[in-house]
Amino acid sequence: MTAKKIWISILFLLVLIFATTGGYRFWKQNKISQDTAQQKAVVITNFFVEKPDFVVTGRNLSAVEIWAIPVSEDTKEENDLFIGKATLRTSVSADEKWALSIPSQPISVIKIYAKGFDGGGKEVARATLAFVGESDIYLNVWGPVTENIVGLAIGEQLVFGDLEMTFTKIVQDSRCPKDAVCVTAGDVTVEVSVVTPRKTQKLQIQNSKNPVLFDGYFIEVNNVEPIKTSEEISKDKYRVTFIVSRDAKL
Predict the structure, then answer these.
(1) Is the pTM for the entire model greater than 0.85?
(2) How many CB atoms neighbour CB 190 within 10 A?
């Protein structure tokens, strides 16, 4: 190898070492900058239920609010319900835990979400509770813990808590008669009149559907008697077993 080639090789090695060292230094500085930015970022990392609280975890939050989307045809955000402001319970290093007590009275909503704010009061983060839909939220946030199972004839009444429910009529009985062959089993729809100090309403409940939520109470049809045959059933012969569940007392 000539002296010229040797010098060219040495020069190449020096350039390679310089480039490698400089590249590593640049990567390290960039990595430090990224880590610093992540540490300073205002984020919500999780939003969940830890009874008796809504819990939000995150970093660098100055305030947290809990909101809900009501059961309504108008889904504009301006109509959302403000549940309350969470308070900072713990802060270990950069990890924070914010909590808000779940309201004792259930609310009819289809989605619950948390807003996170930075030091300037600007909303910069948002997270939604995993449970979606009126029934799913009720069961997982409040949950029926007390229930009353009772059989009623048309015109009879159930009193449970501050709920008064009267079985008013059979709307439809499409059950398959036991002495017939049908494609589907069919179902029964009943009407009940329900009253609390806050609301009054007539509800139609179907035995094959999910329970109906009314002012903190779940109402469902558990059983219908008598068994249907090819002969018409007189209205006064019907007896329906209802299950009424009430919200948790947190």
Answers:
(1) no
(2) 23
